[in-house]
Structure formats: C-alpha cells, structure tokens
Amino acid sequence: MTQHRTPTLLYIDDDDALARLVDRGLTRRGYKVVHAASGEEGLERIRNASTQGCIDVVALDQYMPGLDGLETLEQIMAIPDAPPVVFVTASQDSSIAVTALKAGAADYLVKDVKGDFIPLLHVAAEGALRQAELQRAREEAEAEIHASRDRYAALAAERELLLREVNHRVGNSLQIIASLLHLQASSAAQDEVKAALTNAMGRVAAVAQVHRRLYTSQDLKSVMLNQYLDSLLEDLRRSAEGNRMSRLTVKAEPPIEIDPDRAVAVGIIVNELVMNAVKYAYPDGAGPIHVELTSQGEDLLLSITDDGVGDNVKADPRSTGMGQRIVAAMASKLDATVERDPNHSGTRILLRFRRTPAVSGQANSAAAAS
Q1: Which GO terms describe its molecular function (predicted)?
Q2: In 10 A of CB 98, how many CB atoms?
Q3: What is the pLDDT of residues 205-254, one digit of tens each?
Q4: Which domains, from first to last, does the chain contain?
Q5: What's the Rg (C-alpha) of the chain?
Q6: pTM beyond 0.70, yes or no
Q7: Residue 152, phi then psi, degrees to nearest 5
C-alpha cells in the first residue's frame, strides 16, 4: 500500500496564540504545521527547506512587524520552486486580495481571532497543493515535449546527414562506373560496341547526377529538374559520342522541382532519346538536338527535337530495340504519355507527365474517363 507523506504547512504570523490554534486545527486534518513569527523568519525557513525539511504550502498573514505580508509574498515568489502561498488577513479590504493574487498568491481568505477560519484554511491549502501539483505536471509535460522535439530534431539532422553521405557515396560510385564505361567506349574499335558502352554510360550518369544533386541540395526530397538536365547533357557532351553533340541544347523553365525517383526516370528517357537522335537523325554528321522542358499547370511537357531525316531514317538491322523498351518502361513509371509530333519535318518526341505522382483515386478516375 502506498504511504502518503504528511504535507507541511508553514504558517507565517506574529500572533503566537492564533498560530497554536492553526497548529491544532490542521494537525487534526493531517498536516504538519511549522510556525514562523515574521516574514524574515518565514523566508529563511523556505530558503533552508533542503536542510530543515520540505515546505509544501505557506499560509501568510498580511500585518506583521518588519516585512508585511505583501512584501514577504514578493520575496517568496522570487525563490526558485517556491511553495504555493495562501494569503491570510483580518482586513475586509478587497484591494489587498486583488494585490496578493496578482503578486502570485494561490488563494486568499479572511481570518478571525477565534480560529473559525481554520477549516477554510484547510480547504485553501488543499486547493493550493492540487494547483501546484497540476502546475508541476504541466511543466514536466512541457519539458518532455521540448525534450522530445529536441531529440526529434537531432535525429532528423542525423538522418539528413546520413542521407547526404549515402547520396555522396552512391553518386561517386556511379560516377566511377560511368568513367570506366567512358574509357572502355573510347578504346573500343567496333562502332556498335562503342555505341553500346556510351549508351550504358549515359544511363549510369543519369542516375549518378540525381545523387549528386541530392548531396549538394538543401532539400533531400526534390531535385531541380532544369539544373539536373543541364548537368546530364553536359555529361553526354563529354562522352565518347561528344563530338556529335556539339549542337546539343537544353531549355528548361526554372524552377521546376520533382522528386528524385521521377527525376531518374526523366533523365534516363532524355539520355535514350538524345542518343537515338545522335545515332540516326544525322547520317552524314552532327546536327542540332534540342531538349526543352516546359510547365503547363500541374503537367510538365518534355520535348526532344532534331532536324534530321525523320521518317526517312534507314533501319539498322543490328538494333535490339533496347532504347525503346527503356523509354516505355520509364514513361510507365512516370504515368506519362509519349507521342511523336507528325507535323515536324525531323523527329520531335513529346513526353507529358504530372509534376507529382497522381494518387490512386485520381489515376482510376482518369482511366475511367478515358
């Protein structure tokens, strides 16, 4: 069975006879009463509570020699973790009550010389103790909330740091792979081998660029698509087929943000379509290839355009159709539409997709409407 500690009330009053009445009356009600005959003595007792015993609640008289009740109350309130105070006076002046309550008293009551107020003092002390307990519980809860927020902030900062480190290492590793593919493509004697290795290098570079963007970005949840495409096409210009990309341009509406997974899909599609234009659009040499990204409300429109031979391209019997399958797979990941502009003399591929993934309900509604 839990043993409850007897609460201690400090009664500060210069009237010894009344103090004895309070002692007897509250002792019968389960309190231990400590008497201080002046404000100075009471303050000393509260300050030395750690060595002389805890004070749970204070009953403080107003009229005393030396420090009066209001002056004593002001100093009690300045003590760290001060006990609650019930202000006691024989005066009927309500302005004293208002002043005491504003100064921090938990309650206020009018006393009499016969001790008839003692039951009211008991009720006021009980209320002050409950109020103090609730205040302590609230402060502890607030402290725990602040501590939890601090822990969460620390964990979030640590997680962000780890994600940056992961993106940094993954980006570096993929860049090494892309560099090795570039070296292998540069030394390849057969054109088909060179092209295959260059295509593979572009696909790896498309993924590596996303991780590099995430490592250097303040936001780990999105990628600036215009900056990403600039860097991706710069990688392609430095590839083994770079001499045929001297007129490769990119135009993107800044700023366009997109989540990393969708950025990877866009990058791989751009790589495949640009490399396809390099191989087939200009049989006699290099020509202009334009990559353009525009925003149309919640949709993004990506176009890859060349002014080459268009439908007159000669079929390559060595083609495996890998690029087309990759484009179709990435377009499916984006829930995008891919179409060819029939009015363009060369080749213009249009890819339309949403800036953010459609939720399942919206996707199902769109499918039903179509």
Answers
A1: ATP binding; protein histidine kinase activity
A2: 11
A3: 778 777 776 656 666 678 888 888 888 888 777 765 656 676 788 888 76
A4: 8-146 (3.40.50.2300), 188-354 (3.30.565.10)
A5: 40
A6: no
A7: -65, -45
